[in-house]
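Predict structure. Chain length: 368.
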Amino acid sequence: MITWRMRSPSTGAMGDFPLRRLPSPPAGIPPDGTALVGGLRMSQVKSERGFEHRPVMLAEVVELFGPVPPGLVLDATVGGGGHASAILAAHPHLSLVGLDADPEAVAASRSALAGVGERGAVYQANFGQLKTVVGERALSGALFDLGVSSAQLDRPERGFSYRVDAPLDMRMDPGGGASAADVVNSMDTDELARLLAANGEGRFARRIVRAIVAARPLATTGQLAEVVRAAIPAATRRQGGHPAKRVFQAIRIAVNAELEVLGPALDDAIELLAPGGRGVVLSYHSGEDRLVKGRLTRAATGGCTCPPGLPCVCGAQPWVRLLNRGARRPSAAEVAANPRAASARLRAAERLVPEHGDPAGTDREGRP
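Prediction complete.
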């Protein structure tokens, strides 16, 4: 049996399955004809290739980038280009570079973002590679719209959905790396149980894993969904949503090393923000949101280690200010129009201008 081991993305490998490194885009951001179209429908983006995406909390995201200084915004998960198009249409003082690991999303966003020349560019890259694309350029803004898109869920052959039988894939970049079938069939039993427990399936994680191991090898989403359904007690299956939802979510996160890459990527984005620049993050499950909250809170306190409620004496200086208490939620109207928006949580922060010259541990542009 092959044992799956999670490693840093900087190693270029995860377990015994090599992850294909994406080709490094050029340092800097030359124009490539990927920018926006005037008059775009703000509720939905659909490319000529059929990649359909409805951007979540669009009005809130666009509003948050209004006050930022002129310059470059990074859309670290550009998807179909919906948020990117709206940001550029509303804010002529901004340009944008978009990243996405999914080649279909890259094609869709390049189609949607066509018309303003050098104001926009899109690269196929994971957001963990954002510094490779942006270099050391200061950012006026950074947007992370996490999770899986409607376009990916609605394409059965991508293997993200438990509702349709299809090959068990789940790779954001289907061109390389380990698939969901590799994870399900080869991950060590204890590790697989820990993975499910860490992503919300704590109560029945061991029970589900025993059923998966007994049914190996599993080749399709339908097979996995049925194994999970049968492993859950009948009384529990009648409550809430589909019993396989959290299992599929956990496996997708492992396949794409999503949480492993997210923390360092958020740190990189905060580091690159210019004073007055803003970082905005949309997350869709508790694991993502906890990580985002922790990273932004650390930046907002400067990593202060003093007891809560007492004056800071450790010398920590905040790098950002949080723009709202807690996470913002989509409106009832938006959830009614787009039920997949219901789980969204939006957090945002603004890079501070140093009060007394360069704070300790920052460079001349005020970065930590």
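Summary: The radius of gyration is 21 Å.
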